[in-house]
Amino acid sequence: MLVAACLAGDRRAFDQLVDAYQSKLFNAAYRVTGSTADAMDATQGAFVKAYEKLRTFDQSRCFFSWIYRIALNEALSIVDRRRNLSELSGDACGGGDPEQACEATEAGDHIQKALMALPEDQRTVLVLRHFHGLSYHEIGEVVGVGEKTVKSRLFEARRTMRVLMLRQGFTP
Amino acid sequence: MNEERFEDRVWEQIDGTLDAEGRAELEAYLEAHPEARARQEAIRALSRKLARIEEVPPPEALRTRIAAALRKTRHPSTSDASLLDRLRNLVAPNFLRRSGVLSAEQGSAEQVDLRGRGRWQTMSAKRTGVVVGLAAVVVVAIVAIGYFSVHRPPAPAENAAGATGAAQRYRAEQIKEGDVRLDLKGEEGLDDAIFAVLTDEQKLDMLDRMDAGRRQKFLAAIAMDDAKWNGMDRRMKMAWLGRLDADGVKACCAAAQIDPADFERRKIDQRADLLDRMDAGRKQKFFGAVNVTDASFATMDRRKRIDLLGRLDADGRKAFRANVQFTEADLQAMPVDQRAEMINRMDAGRKQKFFGAIAMDEAKWNGMDRRKKVDWLSRLDADGVKAFCASAQISPADFDRRKIDQRVDMLDRMDAGRKQKFFGAVNVDEAKYAAMDRRQQADLLNRLDADGRADLFGQVAFERLALRRMDVAQQAAVWERMSEAARKDALARLNLSDDQFNRMNTAQRADLVGRACLE
């Protein structure tokens, strides 16, 4: 309804969409990028892209899945760029930056550290499942893969996560 | 079952997706490997830990940043506020309020349920209270002024004489105001109303129906080249670049030798600079990659064609309208809501023109030939019939019993007073229009005769336009200027002999020259 209102000319309708989804998108982006600054960029970029492409949105589908997908793509693009830049600069940490590691440590967030060590596709499904409670089907819609693939990536991510946390000396 | 599979089963159990077979398998494994229970518990603990992770509140600055970024981005709808501002003084807001489109409270969004099956469209108003009926349902196809001769008009609208059979080709889905993009130059958007009203399906159908010549014209009109680019102002350049699709972006990056991430990082005016700085060769390569040719159009699937239409600027939409053929069948196939919407989007001036085109008075009636009188009377709606019966002092049953030419005779015989009363009852003005329901509004389009419809949808060939500017004597005199061969040809098409023509009076010859043009 808000999408229809926005397309019909109600600028405030999109403001309501931003209010409704800002936090969720920011968190998804944060868990994927591991950085507050990058998460802000990704969230802002996602809303701008969604606004620009709103006419292309199929209103019979779930808006949340659609905008989530945009946000995750923004976040993953940032991660890719950061990795490319760190490769160019000879950063041996493989994409993690000190600020990011610092954030994770300060927050005592072993989870976030382990998340950042996951491959992006596994990280994404794990974030969507455990931090946003999406079903396999919903995750599939967001990520653009089938449920089987979601399940397979999720299970792989969980296995890796457990190993990484054990290595960190974390016992829940 | 190995350890990996065991872990997967535990996760499935936590997710609630473990089926009976899986449960049995898991239990059996735990029975056989009691030490595995510790691992099961560790996995459950991790799941609980993940579930307890709190949301990180976004920084306060984020909301401000998003708002600022959106302000710089063009609204995806057609109800562009800046256009509303510009047109505010041209539209009578009171009319729109009376019509129910605009609520009495300024700035409130009014839901106009046009289909009765759910929300279809919302029109919203600025606080200062003007919802602009986006105007101009004009589809232009005017032939250049030159030597006038009576020829068959090029590609006349099908069923220009006004057949009412509906093509039923369209299942119109929602019509969204957001389908119209308003070009930054602004006022050209006035003519976008018909584009806005058409659904993707309808536009696509019209695009597919374009003959090769028209399609070439259209594609050429939307193509970009160095000269055109250099002639554009900065806003137009930015708007054009902003409409590039993913393939266009790729082509731009290839020509500019930058990567897509770099492209994304640049603001739109920086991208315009990038293109400005390209040498002619690279620019040509880029434009060549983004322009649509006949060959590339032929390979486009439905989605790409819709996307192409969605990316047209004002000039592109003009080119589309100039080359499509909006036919009687198209009009009849439109659902009520869409037809009513077409009228609603006219600005005040054009609406007046439309009402004028369907209005009748004694002078106009007396100037019409019998065929036109029959045509006009046959288009009366139920209220019109009631008004006729009241003026003619007959019952509706009596009206129904009479044939159409008898009804014409009755109207001919009415005294001036009764005629005026009747015409006054059937003519529409803004107040009457505002009080109409959707169906009545949509039906107004049916009151237009062939000429009126052709004018409305812009498919008026030069010859027809020129004729309409002539008085009866001038029209009749057209026959005198024709060559012998042209006259013979025209009469043959009209199935008339020389003898029959020679016995005609001025008015009849004038009417004939119109038919020779149109048929």
Q: How does this model look, in words?
A:
The complex is a heterodimer of chains A (172) and B (519). With 172 residues, chain A is mainly alpha-helical. Chain A is built from 9 helices and no strands. Chain A has helices at residues 2-7, 11-33, 36-52, 63-88, 98-106, 110-117, 120-131, 136-143, 147-167. In chain A, α3 crosses α4 (63-88) and α4 (63-88) packs across α8 (136-143). The longest helix of chain A has 26 residues, at 63-88. Mean pLDDT of chain A is 79; it is low at 89-108. Chain B contains 35 helices and 2 strands. In chain B, α1 packs across α2, α8 (200-209) packs across α17 (302-310) and α23 (370-378) crosses α26. Chain B is mainly alpha-helical and 519 residues long. The longest helix of chain B has 17 residues, at 36-52. Chains A and B meet through α1, α2, α3, α4 and α9 of A and α1, α3, α4 and β2 of B.
Coarse shape of chain B = elongated
Helix content of chain B: 55-70%
Order of the strands making up the biggest sheet of chain B: 1-2
- Terminal residue distance of chain A: 43 Å
How large a portion of the residues of chain B is in β-strands, by DSSP E?
under 5%
Order of helices and strands of chain A: HHHHHHHHH
Please give the count of helices of chain B. Answer: 35
Unreliable spans of chain A are 89-108
> Biggest sheet of chain A, in brief?
none
Radius of gyration of chain A: 17 Å
Radius of gyration of chain B: 32 Å
Q: Tell me the number of strands of chain A.
A: 0
Low-confidence region ranges of chain B:
78-191
Form type of chain A: globular
Number of helices of chain A: 9
Provide the structure class of chain A: mainly alpha
The oligomeric state is: heterodimer
Mean pLDDT across residues of chain A = 79
What is the makeup of the main sheet of chain B? 2 strands, antiparallel
What is the first-to-last residue Cα distance of chain B?
83 Å
Nearest-integer average pLDDT of chain B: 72
